[in-house]
């Protein structure tokens, strides 16, 4: 899905992700859906914050692999048009309590099994996260 690099676009990414997961047997009010929504929201907010300008949309891709009985994995990818804006290094000092931002990737790190970023070309970069979905999603 391609979305506008606005707060509304980030909110829509979260809502569309939970709807998509519900359609793929991950119930809307489940813990798995809630964790996935938080990861999508943080990655989308990061794209909006660092890329938010007219004509610089971001893309959201969700991929579900595995089976309900054997365990499934959700991969969330958010691609923005700011390959020139690298992520802060992992292990960097967390923001002070007085700071109003800078905790999004800490939240992603806490909820995702794995996450990272890749530079796709001179213009785009993708932040991705993978979450294991328990066999029982309720």
Helix-strand layout with pairing:
Elements: E1 2-3, H1 7-23, H2 31-51, E2 58-67, E3 71-80, H3 104-111, E4 114-119, E5 125-133
Antiparallel strand pairs: 1-2, 2-3, 3-5, 4-5
How many beta-strand runs?
5
Give a quick account of the main beta sheet: strands, pairing sense, barrel closure: 5 strands, antiparallel
Helix percent reads 25-40%
Q: Regions with pLDDT < 50 over 5+ consecutive residues?
A: none
Tell me, briefly, the overall form: globular
Proportion of strand residues: 25-35%
- Radius of gyration, Cα only, in angstroms? 15 Å
Estimated structural class: alpha+beta
How far the N terminus sits from the C terminus, by CA atoms, comes to: 27 Å
H/E topology pattern? EHHEEHEE
Q: If helices are DSSP runs of H or I spanning 4 or more residues, what is the number of helices?
A: 3
What's the mean pLDDT score? 85
Give the quaternary arrangement of the chains.
single chain
Strands in their spatial order, largest beta sheet: 1-2-3-5-4
